[in-house]
Amino acid sequence: MKKLEKMISIHSDIVVMGITDDSRNVKEGYIFVATKGFYVDHYDYIADAIDKGCCFVVADREIQYSFPHIVVENINEYFLELCKKYYEISFDDFHFIGITGTDGKTTTATIVKELIGDCAYIGTNGLIICDELIPLSNTTPCVSELFECLAKIKKSKITNIVMEVSSEALLHHRIDGITFDIIAFTNITGDHLNVHKSFDNYVKNKMSLLNYIRKDSKVVVNKDDVNLQNIMCQNLFSFGKDYSNDFIISDLKFYDNKTTFSLKYQDRLFSIISPFYGEYNIYNLAEAFVISFIFGMPENILLQKIKNLPSISGRGERLNFGQDFCIVLDYAHTINGVKSILNSYRKFDDMIVVTGAAGGRDASKRPIIGKMVMDIADKAIFTMDDPRYEDVDTIIDEMVGDRNDYLRIIERKDAIWYALEHAHSNSVVLIIGKGRDDYMAIENKKIPYSDYDVICEYFQSIE
After folding, report:
1. Same domain flag for 232 and 341
2. CA atoms of 207 and 231, how far apart (whole Å)
3. What is the value of pTM for the model shown?
4. Which listed residue, 37, 108, 343, 346, has the most CB atoms within 10 A of its CB?
5. Are residues 19 and 131 in the same domain?
6. Which residue, 273, 307, 341, sits at the end of a domain?
7. Residue 385's CATH number
8. Would you report the helix, strand and coil content of the chain in percent, each value rounded to 5?
9. Closest to 290 (Cα-Cα) out of 107, 112, 96
């Protein structure tokens, strides 16, 4: 809590208990900042915030209520400064590593956290400080939630932070004010086109992360990706299979329980052994190694830590319930993400895939993903995946077109159980799209649901 007059140049006895620009999060004693969002003008929710007990309103135009308030010119900048004062946080208190891209952000950022050790994580999997996990509303949280995270991190005495930076966070200026010590690009293959309207806009938003660096900041780029090959800046470190890269990936070998590859940098050769599977994970591992290496971590520690990395929840996660077939739980929902995981498991004699597409999201990728799944899988099962306000049958129709070489099982639990019941020795069951999400988004509600729990229930039922 903090007195209002310590934050705003007015004489007041008001005690502030929190700050937000989302009226749904307002509690007694909160300042409500009526920012103008990309989709919503929060000015329209001032009455709701007052009804919920806010103590003060900040707006960019005069309000229609007799209530303590202030009118400011640049409300987004003012919101940022208020958060700094309330939480007594400066971005200079931390070393930031920002990772963006269409696929691989979560895996790469999580590996970086493990490799650096004394490092907090902010991303799709929430806020992770040491072993504590705190769920977040977005991959990259909004300004006030971000400052809540930073306050918790500061209290823990950790100064290093690795963040996933989404295209929508860049579009909505959620990270304004941060300058990153290192930024990294995984790949750019197209997603969220329902928001960005065109692929060019999407790429420009991703590239805008370069505006958040200093002259001494370092930039890590996967230059095997055609959409990242034109990045030019100081302190750039490229990686990939092509021999023009600074860090060159070679000698890829895949085993049942490990993956090995070499990474050459100048006259040094790093031999990497990892428990992760799939070529896409080699890029994630290579990028995490490069980031941690230029951050200052000793190579011998990095190589040992990579060898002993724990699996990442819902990201190519191989599950063992004593079955004689392979089960993989993965969050893949983009064209490139689905393609990568399908190709990684083609060696199996029998591939069973359970997938769907989220409602209210980029519909243009649905037929492309559907075709890939039906072309590669031996058994393609299409099901529910966060339909929101859309009809599940309609979504599946868009994925499958006029083909009939698939199964349609609307209830996701039924689809997963069917896949597990029909697997046999040397089958791989890929359950993709939701990873370890703990809800199903139906209309405007998040109904408790977990693919992992459904899989656990299946094996409990056959014991």
Report:
1. no
2. 8
3. 0.88
4. 108
5. no
6. 307
7. 3.90.190.20
8. 35, 25, 40
9. 112
Q: Looking at the structure, tell me whether residues 33 and 156 fall in a common domain.
A: no
370 in any annotated domain: yes
Q: What is the CATH number of the domain that holds 67?
A: 3.40.1390.10
Q: Where are the beta strands (DSSP E) in 47-155?
A: 56-59, 69-71, 95-100, 120-123, 126-129, 132-134
Nearest-CA neighbor of 422 among 384, 395, 458? 458
193 and 80 together in one domain: no
- Residue 282's nearest CA partner among 343, 204, 328 is 343
Among 87, 117, 135, the domain-final residue is: 87
293 lies in which domain range?
91-307
Q: E strands of 63-169, at which residues?
A: 69-71, 95-100, 120-123, 126-129, 132-134, 160-164
Based on the domain organization, do 57 and 196 belong to the same domain? no
In the structure encoding, which two tokens stand for residue 262, read together? 């070499």
Same domain (yes/no): 117, 253: yes
Domain-located, residue 220: yes
Give the chain's domain count.
3
Helix (H) or strand (E) holding 429: strand 427-432
In a domain, 105, yes or no: yes
Cβ–Cβ < 8 Å for 217, 97: no
Q: What is the domain-level CATH number for residue 104?
A: 3.40.1190.10
Same-domain pairing of 67 and 102: no
CA pair distance 128, 106, nearest whole angstrom: 12
Per residue of the chain (463 residues), give pLDDT as tens: 899 999 998 989 999 999 999 999 999 999 999 998 777 899 999 999 999 999 999 999 999 999 999 999 999 999 999 999 999 999 999 999 999 998 999 999 999 999 999 999 999 999 999 989 999 988 899 999 999 999 999 999 999 999 999 988 888 888 999 999 999 999 998 555 555 558 888 888 889 999 999 999 999 999 999 999 889 899 999 999 999 999 999 999 998 788 999 999 999 999 999 999 988 899 999 999 999 999 999 999 999 999 999 988 899 999 999 999 999 999 999 998 999 999 999 989 999 999 999 999 889 999 999 999 999 999 999 999 999 999 999 999 999 999 999 999 999 999 999 999 999 999 999 999 999 999 999 999 999 999 999 999 999 999 8
Which of 440-450 are b and which e, b meaning 16 or more Cβ less than 10 Å from the residue's Cβ?
A: bbbeeeeeebb
Helix, strand counts (H, E) of the chain: 14, 25
Residues 387 and 274 grouped into a single domain? no
Q: How far apart are CA 193 and CA 361, in angstroms?
A: 8
Cβ-based neighbours of 256, under 8 Å, separated by 6 or more: none
Asked whether residue 253 is domain-assigned, the answer is yes
